[in-house]
Amino acid sequence: MSAALSPAAFEIFATLLKTQSGLMIGTDKIYLLETRLGNLLKREKLNNLNQLAEKLRQSGADRLGRDVVEAMTTNESFFFRDDKPFVHFRSQALPRLAAARPPGSTIRIWSAASSSGQEAYSLGMIIAESRAVLGDRKVKIIGTDIAREQLTRAREGLYSQFEVQRGLPVQMLMRYFRKEEANWRISETIRAMAQFREFNLLSDPRSLGRFDIVFCRNVLIYFDQPTKSRVLAGIAGIMPADGLLYLGGAETVLGLTTCFAPLPAERGVYGVVATQAAGAPAGRVAAAV
User: Fold this and answer.
1) How many Cα atoms sit within 13 Å of 80 on the Cβ side?
2) For a surface tag, which of 37, 95, 163, 237 has the fewest beta carbons within 10 Å of its beta carbon?
3) Bridge partners of 196?
């Protein structure tokens, strides 16, 4: 990659990422292109990013474009990341929903941009330990991402020693995982709670159905303001009036939408504004990364 990236080539990458995933990238992030697309250059037997950009312009480059987007998306994830949302989910959200839903009903949870599945499985472990609260109510977790490789990992539920040491309490490791050589596989009971699907937030989220709780954490930070607003409007359109949205610690709905309002004294937890609950039209939204 000795040749400097030309402005025209950079624009090809920036446009592809924005239109296909919602990811905004500036010229100060050229190093990310160089770092994350190195393996693609080797695979395609290309010398530099300019040649890759030129290949993307050719007809029939849809698959290559998808590979570029997947290579550029951020897949940072670990169990019980940031902790506080999971504490609220366990102590407040589940009891509240259990009280509001009739026996035998199903509570649906969406883990958006679920990466390799740690967030979804963290929720699953909490649910497994909250059976006394839930009674016979079922819980279904849907994890979605645009990165196929990460979705495959999530479905397998197999994690390295390093991954299970990041945020996962030892008691839960012993209770819900089994050792497989150097790795750990999450139990079938927890895996059965979660389904993982390829889904790009450019698509209409109504195709996923309704959700009582949505975790969409550390995703909005990659979008521009209009895209953030469309994402939030789309999510609100598939939630009931008592639904809850969890965002990342550096994210907010303020100034972006009237669909959600922050819960008093809670950071990163938002309630649906009643007039925006499920049934309202959901606009097209941009992709999660």
Assistant:
1) 17
2) 95
3) 143
